[in-house]
Write a structure and sequence with these properties.
The complex is a heterotrimer of chains A (354), B (329) and C (445). Chain A has 354 residues and is mainly α. Chain A contains 14 helices and four strands. Chain A has a two-stranded antiparallel sheet with strand order 1-4. In chain A, strands 2-3 form a two-stranded antiparallel sheet. Chain A is globular, with a radius of gyration of 21 Å. Chain A starts with 12 loop residues before the first helix and ends in a 5-residue tail after the last helix. Chain B has one domain: ABC transporter involved in vitamin B12 uptake, BtuC (Orthogonal Bundle). In chain B, a hairpin with an 8-residue loop joins strand 1 and strand 2. Chain B is globular, with a radius of gyration of 21 Å. The relative contact order of chain B is 0.17. Helices cover 44% and strands 15% of the residues of chain C. In chain C, helix 4 links the parallel strand 3 and strand 4. The C terminus of chain C is likely disordered. Classes of the chains: A mainly alpha (354), B mainly alpha (329), C alpha/beta (445). Chains in contact: A-B, A-C, B-C. At the A-C interface, helix 3, helix 6, strand 4, helix 12 and helix 13 of A face helix 1, strand 2, helix 3, helix 4 and helix 15 of C.
Chain lengths: 354, 329, 445
């Protein structure tokens, strides 16, 4: 009853094809975005920004990138951490060697470098499928781990291999307080989420989905597999590269190659699977789940009143994490996004049964 | 690319690999003993990787699941054994650990596999990843996260052979030789099991075609429990050997990641592939680290194995002995 | 239908509860306690070494509360946060604990120290990095909030070379550095390279990737190159693996020297008797079990069942002592701050002053009950390390014993390097160095 679309008539093709055709959807999304931009900076505590919102947004961006590759195009990739690392170190080198460049340009350029890298490591996907491809992407992961640890030029000859971002400012406004960092990241995420959503709705997105469902059939009807797969790798690595640069500059401030190791890749893959493959909203939901879970688990002993050592908490975290993944895969293999869609379906009829 | 080109390229790949492996010898016959040590060390490492890879192949063949939890199972088995050994003699501890691994197989089949029948392979893979995380945490909760020394009587001091012929002699790690012999015995036992026993034949039938096997009355669920138990036993053997070498500790489960290039090279569905793939990867890794590594600053072991497997996949996408993938449109 | 609905409803409820719960700000700290968090790792590849350090650290804080009723009557509060030696988790812990108004942090990881060095000045939190951290943070003019008490890796590298030089001139010899491929392992390389040039030895660098269980190729190379000495700069399970692999290639343990983080019980015990002869740097202390402080630990904590370690025998192990001394110096800094600013809950700024003006002389060392476990320590604006001495201890199969006199690192070699590196950091970060007065003379170090 709340959610139904009766009474909403479309009189132009444009209005029928728009991003959120149902008025309630549109208002909801605009409301959330407006709230996020206007109200949250004043309402949220510093802890909320630093521990939850900023990591959630940046990881959601990376998850969107990975979702395009795995969810929309069906190419399993376990090397996302490597692309984030490429983005982060490119941004660092650009910021250090060309300090006069605008920060936004630096991030976009680092995304472009990650894109080139992604296309390079995506070439094997033309021959290799499925798990073989997943393990091949691990080659990218470990190679990049080694590259940034070994080649001193990338870390500006730092003797320890650890690098730190210069103080950030854009158009004269500093990006130092958590609220400023949050707004900056939010702007990036909104723009990229919109772009990704539109890409997946267009011809390219359909080519990706066709390649995912049955690549031989797709080729037969005229979709060029090389274009589809490589474009998926390109777009995905671009987004993931920008996310990596944001993660390094804003979230960490100072990092070393191990910050983007294979555990980060697995974490992103979990986000995408739990959130829902092939869904932009799913990337957000999955990222929220993965960011919030360790924090909840850490608070659990205090709520339950049982004193646990940090080691036990850590082990419990891993155990519950693994168990929840299996639980979600059994209960709803299409992820949280599917739960959301089912919820919306129910809302269309509520309170009527059918 | 047709079969002939693929076969020719494979032969070319191996010739190149052999050439690269032998090339350090060009430096002179005085370097021969060192080169031989590296080759032997690499082959031994390869055997150890194959141990883990065989478990992976077993499960993939019989149930089509890529068991990412194999490494966690190796760790869990080793942890259980070493902690039980603190309380009871070796054989009793071994028996209890075997029972634990079988119980684990039961649980995994009942809680996870049965509920995920007919799902996407990626979903099953993620489920095993979840199981891996769970086992990691659970093992450390129950048994602790220290390094535990596993004493099974493996020799620790190396043997130096041919000290008179070559300067410094050739170093052979007796521990690795014992490990290789154990691995060979295990593979022999597995081969016997698959070829000569009824259960083994049933397993092969299931690996061939699930539906056909079901139609002649083979109970799939029980077969899966058996397969996972056998994989658990293989994990136990691997755990004992690796644990005795490195000490039983958390990082043992990371070693499993090294088994992935092995399975790729050898093919996901072939045990001889796992063994040969392991030998190639072990050899390639060590030779590259010792001879190529210093030129690149060292530490290239980690990614070299993967890159080697990747290059091999480019012209033989199913691995050396894997089944050709047939797409039905 | 109902079952599906209820399943989904449960999932949704879980999600909402989780979101709500996580958004709760951590409860504010009691206003009458001084908060000292510790970033520890009790899980993961580095746990075997992290656990005794954490136990020592926490035990000392508990002891101060139990035995002395706090510092001048103000109790200490502590909290452990598990990092697993991962830099991003360390940063997460820091952000989460920041709101509880900590005065001093112990990151126990060089990588995390690098990350927090940028954040700590803005948050006014002191970083006490006892025996680790950035070597250049000795320069307190630039690194006003970092305190590498007891010495840095550059001190350690120099002292090791001094020691092996005593066995014979180094010209033409080979020294291999087997190091953990992380900021921690790479720290000594500049000093070792400078010394290689000066003394005429060849430095062979052999990196080992985290976690360090794959070292066969590394040690095959060691066997091929036959270095005269091997310096081990590992951490966690890498150490015991290195020693075991050294045994496997028959490299004499007598020629192996580990830095103070690679010379403790968890590293040699897995190899047991075969590790006999392995040497390490003792950062002032080794494994002492019988000093007054240890007796106090047993009396006030373990006999009452309040000790942190799983076994009483752990009290006095090498890493336990180090954690304990780290906590001790933190408390001394607080005490010093209270002397000047008032016996109340002091702020981060005040503790920073206290840490910069530490003067632990021989009398105070005896009063603290750690006689023979540390050298007199005096920090200043120019020297945030306070002491730069160490000696060698050797494992004889059952325990550690000292096998050398105390060495002090060479300020003529190190100070210019420290100042150059600090200046590079200051330029990169656009920091104006604090006015410290004249640059140090050799005697002040």
């Amino acid at each position: 009853m709340i959610y139904r679309e009766t009474g909403q008539f479309k009189s132009t093709y444009a209005s029928d094809q728009q991003l959120f055709p149902i008025v309630q959807d549109r208002w909801f999304v605009i409301g959330v975005v407006a709230f996020a931009f206007v109200a949250v900076p004043f309402l949220a505590s510093e802890y909320l920004f630093l521990a939850i919102l900023i990591p959630f947004l940046i990881l959601a961006l990376a998850a969107i990138g990975l979702n395009i590759l795995v969810g929309y195009c069906g190419q399993v990739s376990l090397g996302t951490g490597a692309f984030m690392a490429v983005g982060a170190y490119s941004a660092y080198n650009l910021a250090i060697r060309m300090p006069d460049l605008n920060l936004i340009v630096i991030f976009l350029a680092s995304g472009a470098i990650a894109m080139a890298f992604g296309v390079l490591f995506g070439i094997p996907s033309l021959r290799i499928k499925g798990f073989y491809l997943a393990v091949a992407t691990l080659a990218a992961q470990f190679f990049v781990d080694w590259l940034f640890a070994r080649v001193k030029w990338f870390t500006n000859d730092s003797s320890s291999g650890s690098v730190s971002a210069p103080p950030l400012q854009v158009f004269g406004y500093g990006i130092e307080t958590p609220a400023q960092q949050y707004l900056f990241v939010l702007a990036f995420v909104c723009v990229f989420a919109l772009a990704a959503r539109n890409l997946t709705r267009g011809a390219i997105g359909r080519a990706w989905m066709a390649t995912r469902d049955m690549d031989v059939a797709a080729e037969v009807i005229g979709i060029r597999p090389m274009a589809a797969k490589l474009s998926a790798f390109a777009v995905s690595s671009f987004i993931v590269g920008v996310a990596g640069a944001l993660w390094a500059f804003i979230r960490l401030g100072s990092w070393e190659p191990l910050a983007f190791d294979v555990n980060r890749s697995f974490q992103l893959l979990f986000m995408v699977i739990i959130g829902g493959l092939g869904s932009i909203l799913g990337s957000f939901l999955g990222a929220a789940f993965i960011v919030i879970l360790p924090l909840v688990l850490n608070q659990l002993p205090t709520w339950l009143g049982i004193p646990l050592s940090t080691a036990m908490i850590s082990h419990l975290e891993i155990m519950i994490f693994g168990a929840l993944i299996v639980f979600f895969l059994i209960v709803e293999p299409r992820g949280l996004a599917r739960l959301w869609a089912i919820g919306k379906e129910k809302l269309r009829l509520w309170p009527f049964p059918h | 690319m047709n079969a002939a080109t693929s076969r020719n390229l494979t032969i070319a790949f191996f010739v190149l690999l052999a050439g690269a492996a032998i090339s350090p010898m060009v430096a002179g016959p005085a370097k021969f003993p060192q080169w031989l040590e590296v080759v032997l060390g690499g082959l031994m490492s390869g055997v150890l990787y194959s141990l883990v890879a065989i478990g992976l192949v077993l499960i993939f063949k019989a149930s089509g699941v890529f068991n990412f939890a194999q490494g966690a199972m190796v760790l869990f088995a080793a942890l259980s054994l070493v902690r039980l050994m603190e309380k009871m003699p070796f054989l009793a501890a071994l028996a209890v650990t075997v029972a634990i691994m079988v119980a684990l197989a039961f649980l995994i089949e009942f809680l996870v596999l049965r509920r995920l029948v007919n799902q996407d392979p990626i979903v099953l893979f993620m489920a095993t990843l979840g199981v891996a995380y769970f086992l990691d945490g659970f093992g450390q909760t129950v048994w602790g996260s220290d390094i535990y020394t596993l004493q099974v009587g493996m020799p620790k001091e190396p043997k130096i052979l041919f000290e008179n012929t070559f300067e410094g002699g050739i170093l052979v790690s007796m521990e690795d030789v014992v490990a290789a012999v154990l691995a060979a015995i295990m593979v022999g036992a597995l081969a016997f099991f698959f070829q000569k026993t009824a259960t083994g034949r049933a397993l092969r039938a299931v690996a061939d075609d699930h539906q056909a096997a079901q139609s002649i009355g083979i109970p799939l669920n029980r077969i899966w429990v058996i397969v996972w138990s056998v994989a658990g036993l293989v994990a136990l053997v691997a755990g004992v050997i690796w644990g005795s070498k490195l000490g039983v500790q958390f990082s043992l489960s990371q070693v499993a990641l090294k088994a992935l290039p092995v399975v790729i090279l050898g093919g996901f569905t072939s045990i001889p592939g796992a063994i040969i793939g392991g030998l190639i990867i072990g050899l390639g890794e060590k030779i590259s680290e010792v001879y190529l590594g210093p030129m690149l600053g060292g530490g290239i072991e980690n990614w070299f194995a993967y890159v080697l497997a990747l290059v091999f996949l480019l012209f033989r996408p199913e691995g050396l002995f894997g089944e050709r993938h047939i797409d039905r449109v | 239908m109902k079952r599906i609905l209820s399943k989904h409803a449960t999932a949704l409820a879980l999600a909402v509860a989780g979101a709500f719960g996580a958004a709760q700000d951590v409860r504010a700290q009691s206003s009458n306690e001084i908060f000292i968090p510790a970033l520890v790792y009790r899980t993961g590849a580095y746990a075997p070494n992290g656990v005794p350090w954490a136990d020592g650290f926490v035990d000392y804080i508990k002891l101060v509360n139990e035995r002395d009723g706090g510092v001048n009557g103000i109790k200490l509060a502590y909290e452990e946060c598990e990092t697993g030696y991962a830099t991003d988790r360390g940063v997460e812990c820091y952000e989460r604990l920041k709101s509880k108004k900590p005065v001093a942090f112990s990151p126990l990881s060089t990588g995390i120290t690098y990350a927090l060095t940028d954040k700590a000045p803005g948050d006014k939190i002191v970083l006490i990095t006892g025996g680790y951290g950035r070597a250049d943070s000795v320069d307190g003019a630039v690194f006003q909030w970092n305190f590498p008490i007891f010495g840095t890796y550059w001190d350690g590298a120099d002292i090791l070379v001094q020691h092996v030089k005593k066995k014979g001139p180094l010209k033409g010899k080979k020294i291999a550095l087997v190091y953990h491929d992380s900021p921690y392992g790479k720290e000594p390389i500049p000093v070792l390279e400078a010394l290689a040039k000066r003394e005429g030895f060849e430095l062979i660098k052999l990196p080992v990737t985290h976690p360090g269980v794959e070292q066969k190729a590394t040690w095959l190379q060691v066997r091929q190159q036959r270095p005269d000495y091997v310096f081990l700069w590992g951490w966690g399970v890498m150490n015991s693996t290195s020693i075991k692999e050294a045994i496997a290639v028959s490299y004499p343990r007598l020629q192996m020297y580990g830095v103070w983080w690679a010379a403790a019980e968890p590293d040699v015990e897995p190899a047991e008797q075969a590790a006999k002869g392995y040497n390490g740097l003792a950062m002032g202390h080794s494994a002492e079990h019988d000093r007054p402080i240890h007796k106090d630990m047993i009396k006030y904590l373990y006999d009452k069942g309040k000790g942190t370690a799983a076994k009483k025998e752990e009290v006095g192990e090498v890493l336990y002592n180090r954690g304990m001394l780290s906590a001790m110096m933190t408390v001394e800094a607080i005490r010093k701050a209270q002397e000047k600013f008032g016996k109340r809950v002091v702020t981060g700024e005040e503790v920073r002053w206290g840490a910069e003006n530490l003067n632990i002389d021989a009398a105070r060392i005896k009063a603290l009950g750690v006689d023979g476990m540390m050298v007199p320590l005096k920090t200043s604006c120019n020297d945030h390390g306070g002491a730069h001495s160490a000696r060698i201890h050797t494992w004889d199969g059952k325990q550690w014993s000292y096998t050398s006199d105390m060495y002090t690192s060479d300020p003529k070699l190190l100070r210019p390097m420290i100042e150059a590196s600090a200046k590079k950091y200051a330029d990169e970060k656009k920091i104006t160095p604090a006015p410290c007065g004249k640059a140090m003379t050799a005697s002040a170090q």
